[in-house]
Amino acid sequence: MIYLALILLLAPLVGTLLLLYTQNNSKRLSIFISNSSILISFFASIYLLFLYFSYNYLPVSQDVLVFADTKLYSLSFGLYIDSLSLVMSTVVTSVSFLVHYYSISYMKDESSFNRFFIYTNFFTFSMLLIVLSNNFFQLFIGWELVGLSSYLLIGFWTSKESAIKANYKAFLVNRVGDIGLLLGLCLVFVTYGTTNYTEVFNLKDTINNSELDIFGTSFNLLSSICLLLFVGAMAKSAQVPLHFWLPDSMEGPTPISALIHAATMVTAGIYMVARLSPLYVLAEDVSIFILYVGSVTAFFLGLVALVQNDIKRIIAYSTISQLGYMTAALGASLYSLAIFHLITHAFFKALLFLCAGSIIIKCHHEQDIRKIGGLRKFMPITYLAFLYASLSLIGFPLTSGFYSKEVIIDAIGYYNHTIPYTMLLAGIFITTLYTSKIFFKVFFGECTLHDRNEKENDKEMLVPLFILTAPSVFLGLFIFDSLLSGTLFGASLMSNTVVLDFYNNYVINSLYFFLHSFMTINFFILLIALIFSYYYYYKKSFNISIPNILSTILKNEYGFNNLSTKFIPKFQNLLTKYLWKNIDILTIDNGIINNTSLMFDKISNTVRKFQTGYIYHYSLTIISALILALLIIRIRY
Amino acid sequence: MIPISYYLILSTIIFAISIAGIFLNRKNILVLLMSLELMFLSVNFNLITLGNYLGDLTGQVFVFFVLTVVAAESAIGLALLIVLFRNKKTIDVDDLSELKG
Questions:
Q1: Rounded CA Rg of chain A
Q2: Interchain contact A613–B (C-beta under 8 A)
Q3: B101 near A610, Cβ under 8 Å?
Q4: H helix or E strand, kind and range, residue A214
Q5: Confidence of residue A523 (pLDDT cuts 50, 70, 90)
Q6: Which CATH architecture has domain B4-90?
Q7: What local confidence, expressed as pLDDT, does residue A452 receive?
Q8: How close are the terminal C-alpha atoms of chain B, in Å?
């Protein structure tokens, strides 16, 4: 089993190395290597998942390789195999494989075609490293590698200036989160003396109530650890206020957006919190914070999507908003529901992005939805796939998105978190609006294609759309009951009782939940939003003018863009100028270094005068010193 | 019988003269060498006097060794002086301050 897991983890890495070695060879070879390595990894994870459930294995945590082993601590490379990591790696590898397959056609005209696959393979490997890791140290390495490969991929088109700026931004914002993660990791290491998950989880109760002193103020140790680690998750999973790198990451190729948004990057933060759920369950104050961060993100950044016009940016904001739902679920200690939404979201968001990619290719890299229209007749497959993905995104009954999202909202309502509940409910309305905005503008209205006789797209681009439609629509129903009743994740996620209680009292089973949902306020909101957007975006029967102030605020994305493009650079400029002038030049250069040499110069100038070069001076000195010494000896003894 | 203090005073006077010769001499490097010889002489004189006074032959024997060394040393000194004169065309002490810092 451990060997199979190693194959699962290392296949993309081996693929990367082979691709590096053969990068000057033909495209066919690199297509073969990259796709087959991910496929191997996918089959390995499917097989492992099958083995795990059919033989009822217990979670395994095993060290494979030891980096450093001292008496005080040991750093090792290990694998943690349980249902959570296996389900997650299956999602990662399957989406990753479909994206790879899709990219064959999408990237076929690129000059640096082979480089693309090196990066994507490496990206998948780094994500799997996070997913399968059994210690914090390895988590951190994977975390950084994911950051690195996303940086490389967002800036894949190196000649495009906006792409370079975007990848810089993504990297820097993630760095802010990394500081949090690193501090949290150090705190874990200092307090528990180990980095292994299982050992930390076993020790957590003993250290639960200890305090941490920082500058005279004391904090709860466990809460500080959770909070710091969550800062890392906030940057990776694009939560307020560290979200603003994600819309800009749309500068990369579209398959990469699908990969980042669905499988490999933004899910890392959610996964980490779920993985560390035994710690987060105990830190109740941090959980409340997480809940509010999540719901604020879900609501306010959904609003921003309404005023965007770039198709990819809208979907990006929708990702942030959906991640907000997951984070809110984490905050309410509904870890399995967060993972549930993560899984379904991975599929339908990948599908949405691949559809968007297909549309963009068809429209010759036009991304502004005001300039695209009437594609329904020319791209029937993309149209249908997009329709299903959108239905899933807005949570239309029976789709995957319905099950995963409604259940989060209802559970948060069930546990009486009123403010987050309201925000998440309003989120449904907004989600429906922006989704229908894309849908109606792109597929209906006047056709903007110049050549109307073209075929839709290559086979390679359409097959993944077909395949992804299935989980986007049906997966939710399929795993709903086993997931909520706790049989799917079992002991790997904490606080089963919270979910189970909700399940037994409110949900009962998937069919009942489905029927019940028609009577809830969620469905009512959804219906109103659908009718509203039908008349507003499709029929255009009325016009709403948004107040100017509101739209400016939304267009500026709450000032986060200005913050990152104007204020922070300005502040940084001032700070660095101050440091340069006062610290570097005045203190270090002139103060320490130049003053030292000046002092030596002065001393030696004085001292050299003693060396006159005249013999009689020397001899006078010698003899007078001798006399002095004799006198001293005479007096003392 | 001449008292021992007379001898010692004589030797001190010779020593003082030689030191004055070294310190106050600003002209000639030959004078410097001569003063050096004088200094050795005064020290030798001391050795002989005290050796005789204490009835110890060692002091008087030691003088022979000192004289030998002094002879050798002055030979080297004079040789150096000749070489110096060849190069510098001067034996003026004030001009010889090459090692001035």
A1: 30
A2: yes
A3: yes
A4: strand A211-214
A5: confident
A6: Orthogonal Bundle (1.10)
A7: 59
A8: 54
From chain B, pick out residues whose CB is under 8 angstroms from the CB of A607.
Answer: 101
Spell B77-97 as b/e; 16+ CB within 10 A means b: beeebeeeeeeeeebebeebe
Answer yes or no: is the ipTM higher than 0.90: no
Please indicate whether residue A616 or residue B13 has the higher confidence score (pLDDT). B13
What is the residue-averaged pLDDT of chain A?
Answer: 84
pLDDT in the model for residue B9: 94
Query: Which long-range contacts link A618-621 to residues 24+ away (Cβ below 8 Å)?
Result: A619/B22, A619/B23, A620/B23
Question: Which 8-state DSSP code applies to residue A371?
Answer: G
The predicted model gives B57-81 an average pLDDT of 91
pLDDT tier, A366 (very low <50, low <70, confident <90, very high otherwise)? confident
DSSP 8-state secondary structure symbol assigned to residue A558: G
**CA atoms of A428 and A32, how far apart (whole Å):** 42
Using alpha carbons, select from A164, A88, A97 the residue that is nearest to residue A128.
Answer: A88
pLDDT band per the 50, 70, 90 thresholds, residue B76: very high
Task: Answer yes or no: do B23 and A613 touch at CB < 8 A.
Answer: no
* Partners of residue A220 on adjacent β-strands: A211
Give exposure, A544-583, as e/b (b: 16+ Cβ within 10 Å): eeeeeeeeeebeebbebeebbeeeeeeeeeeeeeeeeeee
Q: Does A608 touch chain B (CB under 8 A)?
A: yes
Mutate which: B23, B24, B25, B38, vs A, most A CBs within 10 A: B23
How many C-beta neighbours within 10 Å does residue A306 have? 15
A38 or A75, greater pLDDT: A38
Half-sphere exposure in the Cβ direction for A217 (13 Å, CA): 2
pLDDT at A567: 81
